[in-house]
Amino acid sequence: MKRLCHYISEYMGLLVLAAAVLALAYPGVLGQVPPKTINYLLGVVMFGMGLTLNLQDFKIVFSRPKDVAIGCLAQFTVMPLLAWCLATAFQLDEALALGVVLVGCCPGGTASNVITYLAKGDLALSVGMTGVSTLLAPLLTPLLTWALAGKSIQVDVASMFLSILWVVILPIVAGLIVKWLWPRFTERATDYLPAFSSVAIAFTVAIVIAASAGKLLAGGLLIVLVVALHNVCGLALGYTIGRLLGLSEPKTRAISIEVGMQNSGLASSLATIHFAAFPLATIPGAIFSVWHNLSGAAVAYLYRKSEAKKS
Prior knowledge:
Elements: H1 2-10, H2 12-25, H3 27-30, H4 37-52, H5 55-63, H6 65-89, H7 94-105, H8 111-118, H9 123-149, H10 157-181, H11 183-189, H12 193-211, H13 213-219, H14 221-244, H15 249-260, H16 264-274, H17 283-310
Helix pairs in contact: 1-12, 2-12, 2-17, 4-10, 4-12, 5-6, 5-9, 6-7, 6-9, 6-14, 6-15, 7-9, 7-16, 7-17, 8-9, 8-15, 8-17, 9-10, 9-15, 10-11, 10-16, 12-17, 14-15, 14-17, 16-17
């Protein structure tokens, strides 16, 4: 069982890609699943994140505040501005533009920690940035979405704030409490958590894509291009920022990956809850979930290869 879970988590990108392809091929199977299921699935992922966190992960905030601050500042400036610029440059319609902006305004995703580890980056910094950016998300994600998309679409900042508390922060806190109360159980469950999170993310992507499969097949190439550019430019700019500030290579890699990889499941969840009038707004988050896992694996391979050449 442990070996199976290991393979599921290791090949998460391929699992998510397969789920997306199946959803496009057989949209009727998942098209009837209630959209709110996405929120429960995201809650499962966040609960798993809470089970894996501990107070040691947040000590880096106090021992290396400058590194964490650089990463979080880059996270909440580079990706939101990139999203707005790409949506404007490619003249996306309101719904798709909103979806791209939502992805850009979300915190870093938990997959970034795995990719940072595989890329031989600074894992402690990556975990610290993910934790801090997630805690900042209830405030910053709604405000940034309002600032960048609020002129054309009504954005209820207070309602989004509460949604992120319920869907993201509360499950993480619940996970931390369970870990504190039943540490032995949590330790045994840790081996299986990445696999369960991978399956939950794949199912989320499948639900979102199945719901809009027809429109995605009719004109989805443009949004795939925009999402890919968003991710690749985020990875490149994150790395550039680290180099310009003279950070070490492991720190630079961590910031690059943390900036480029988003909690795109949260973007789809927020689009489902708050922007039901714009169903296509869920699509960029789903595509990002597929793409950034594939590009993350590729980036990790390139970083490892460059490390091997140096040694």
